[in-house]
């Protein structure tokens, strides 16, 4: 049942729960990447609103452990979630050595 335009604004506002905050979305993204890849997640490196609503979250993952650990191969996964935290897409954006500098930084 959709709310009618004659219902009080307060009732319509309560009908849809508030979207999840960025921190909660980030935690969900880390969990999703860990479950999908079976690899150790290191944490979130970016959270931004998506153009069409929802969120795009960058999650760093250990792709390969090496000795010494400074030679570990890491991956950056981009995760798209809707406002409710449902997974829409997930893909590895790139791989790189731990400690390597980002060429995009100016």
How is this structure best described in words?
With 106 residues, the chain is of the alpha+beta class. The chain has one domain (17-97). The chain has two helices and four strands. It has helices at residues 9-15, 22-37, and strands spanning 41-49, 55-64, 73-81, 87-97. It has a four-stranded antiparallel β-sheet with strand order 1-2-3-4, with helices on one face. The longest helix has 16 residues, at 22-37. The relative contact order is 0.16. The model has no long low-confidence stretch (mean pLDDT 86). InterPro entries: Gas-vesicle_GvpO. This is Gas vesicle protein.
The counted number of beta strands is 4
Computed Rg: 18 Å
**What is the overall silhouette?**
elongated
Helix content: 10-25%
> Quick one: biggest sheet?
4 strands, antiparallel
Q: What structural class do you assign from the helix and strand content? A: alpha+beta
Low-confidence stretches: none
Strand order of the largest sheet: 1-2-3-4
Number of helices: 2
What's the pLDDT, averaged over the residues?
A: 86
Beta strand %: 35-45%
- Kindly give the count of domains: 1
Organism: Dactylosporangium maewongense
Pfam families: GvpO (PF05800)
Region (Disordered): 1-20
Protein name: Gas vesicle protein
Give the topology.
Elements: H1 9-15, H2 22-37, E1 41-49, E2 55-64, E3 73-81, E4 87-97
Antiparallel strand pairs: 1-2, 2-3, 3-4
Summarize the structure.
The chain is α+β, with helices and mostly antiparallel strands.
């Amino acid at each position: 049942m959709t709310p009618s335009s004659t219902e009080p604004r307060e009732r319509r506002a309560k009908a849809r729960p508030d979207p999840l905050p960025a921190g909660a979305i980030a935690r969900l993204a880390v969990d999703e990447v860990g479950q999908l890849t079976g690899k150790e997640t290191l944490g979130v490196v970016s959270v931004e609103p998506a153009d069409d609503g929802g969120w795009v979250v960058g999650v760093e993952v250990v792709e390969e452990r090496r000795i010494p650990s400074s030679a570990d191969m890491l991956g950056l996964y981009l995760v798209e979630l809707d406002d409710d935290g449902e997974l829409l897409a997930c893909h590895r954006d790139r791989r790189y050595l731990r400690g390597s500098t980002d060429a995009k930084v100016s």
